[in-house]
Amino acid sequence: MPPSSVHFNGSVNLPDTETVMREISSRIPVGVRRVPDGETGERNYWIGFQVQKFAAMPDFQPAGMRDMPGSDLPPRPLLRLSDGVAAEDVHWPDLGYADAYADSYQVFRRLQDDGTIPPGVRFQMQYPTPLAPVAGTFVPEDRDRMLASYQAALFADLDRVLGRLPHEQVAVQWDVAVEFAMLEGGFGFSPVPLEQITPGLARCADQVPGDVPVGMHLCYGDAGHHHFKQPESLAMQVQVANAVTAAARRPVNWFSFTVPQAQIDSSYFAPLADLRTGPETELYFALVPYYPARQPAGTTAQQAAHIDAHLARTPVGSQGWGICTECGMGRVAADDVPTLLDLHQTILGRRGADR
User: Fold this and answer.
1) In this predicted model, what pLDDT tens digit does every residue of 280-339 receive, in sequence order?
2) How far apart, in whole angstroms, are the C-alpha atoms of residue 147 and residue 153?
3) 292 is in which domain, residue-wise?
């Protein structure tokens, strides 16, 4: 069946929340179940603003630089606990998510009230998993201790915003990227088994109340629109989705899957036959290319056919599956964003079957 819905993984390179929501709603009038605020302002480069907060804290001090092998990213500063500071004594600042999302919700509410955003569409908030800002920022000997402390602060931030906003109008997405670097041995991490990653992801899902939809963006990075490793197939993503589904106490309402833009091999999609997420979980695949002019004709149609074929034995619900970009649109040139949004609608309407 053709894709029936659209998902946004978070960031959108437009000036502000209202512009993001208006552009999405006008260009994709049907098929959007959740709308993000675009992570504009200081949040425009994912966890960068969190790391900046860490660097300004007296609890930490510089500990050299960390290379980023396999990417064109420059070395990144490393931090460690300052002398005499214990992990349990770290005083985290306001992490910034709760207030930003509370402000963005007011824009969402106004636009939905005036009919710009259709009824039933939810306001989507994106959070990094606690591991993401910590794993590449702190020296290994401090990493685990800082992870527990930062997780408590991040979960408290989420609890605050969910305490302020109506649960029937919001949704939460966890961005799962650093975990894939650790599973695949990317960015200089030594590979770790899935069993070490699953509990943390399940905790993230379970932190969201049962009356708020929660999803996960399964990501292989987006530095210069390049992955830290080109996935050979959907196998690792399917394994993660299955493991989190089994471990979490609550349903995960959606997963978005990375699909390299020119990938048309049936073998890449074959692991979908092993997906065990259940019919209540929405599935989104990155069939919307950042650079459509570079994609051979027929690519999207072939990708969709492979997805249909390999999902034939997997319950996906009556509404089928949907589409997204590989990551957010925060690193896309602002002038290209309208074209990308229009491409979502074209693919959704199957008018782009020759793409």
Assistant:
1) 899 999 999 988 888 888 999 999 999 999 998 776 765 679 999 998 898 889 999 999
2) 10
3) 5-348
